[in-house]
Amino acid sequence: MPAGEAGAEAAARTLAAGGLVAFPTETVYGLGADAANATAIAHLYAAKGRPAFNPLIAHVADIAAARRIGRFDARASKLAEAFWPGPLTLVVPKTEGCPVTDLATAGLDTVAIRVPAHPVAQAILRAFGGAVVAPSANVSGHVSPTLAAHVESDLAGRIDLIVDGGPVTVGVESTIVGCLDAPMLLRPGGLSRERIEAVLGMALARPPVEAESDESQPLAPGMLASHYAPRANVRLDARDVAPGEALLAFGPARLPGLDAAAAVMNLSPTGDLDEAAANLFGHLRALDAESPRAIAVMTVPEQGLGEAINDRLRRAAVAR
């Protein structure tokens, strides 16, 4: 149903009844379930086919609600005050009596929290009144959804409600920062490392070990090795296009073999990383729908949002 007051109220009723609701955030469409309802979260895992060891992000309406489920030290508070609402997730210790279920946190003693900026997400969270886990509203491992139509394509018949708020603006998931000791970048995303480090006045640490396989328990959502993956194989840093391949281009350059490509989409003809981030998942989906032999991907600079884009592309390219 369309976004609006009626949509927010319907979403809140559905969540309270243990149902699953897809709705837009500024990053991607999320699939929401009551964070305190283990049965609803089990249904969410089943609908997505999501590994139960991959923790979920609890979305709340404001910092006061976040403090009811997580313990914030001075650095975490500084980041929350600077960037919430927005595309930043903070991983912090749970409060005593934290209502977010162990199933949602994958048994960890920490909780991942975000205050989304999207007005539709805000309206739903305020109408519901509690924390809502909301991983991307797609089949686990598939390309993340940036339109309601993407959600319907993946999850029709598996969930209760889709609230259509139009296309999202950021287009890649939230940046995740662990605030347990030294602040650590657990997942690049829609807020750049540089902006976070400027507020902290220090460099973000890197995780000791990234997820090496899909059997490893990640420290945070989105850290599985094979993730965000289309059906076609993905070939990174392409300098040409082989027969039968589709091309995910970036910038104005034309690669050899382009004219014979199965399909071509450009993340940003002008080389704008914000535009590329917004287009990433939609373009991957469109190319994958052409059933190419493989998807060749041009090099994207490893700076600003390019770090998050390349993180997603590397995970999409992991052998499966």
Give your account of this protein's structure.
This protein starts with a helix and ends with a helix. The model has no long low-confidence stretch (mean pLDDT 91). It is of the alpha/beta class and 320 residues long. Strand 8 (175-178) and strand 9 (184-187) form a beta hairpin. It has helices spanning 5-16, 38-48, 63-67, 74-83, 102-105, 119-128, 148-155, 193-200, 273-288, 306-316, and strands spanning 21-24, 29-34, 57-59, 88-93, 110-114, 132-133, 161-162, 175-178, 184-187, 233-235, 245-249, 264-266, 294-297. It is built from 10 helices and 13 strands. It has a 9-stranded mixed β-sheet, with helices on both faces. The chain has a 4-stranded parallel β-sheet with strand order 10-13-11-12, with helices on one face. The longest helix has 16 residues, at 273-288.
List the helices and strands and how they pair.
Layout: H1 5-16, E1 21-24, E2 29-34, H2 38-48, E3 57-59, H3 63-67, H4 74-83, E4 88-93, H5 102-105, E5 110-114, H6 119-128, E6 132-133, H7 148-155, E7 161-162, E8 175-178, E9 184-187, H8 193-200, E10 233-235, E11 245-249, E12 264-266, H9 273-288, E13 294-297, H10 306-316
Parallel strand pairs: 1-7, 3-5, 4-8, 10-13, 11-12, 11-13
Antiparallel strand pairs: 1-2, 2-6, 3-6, 4-5, 8-9
Helix pairs in contact: 1-6
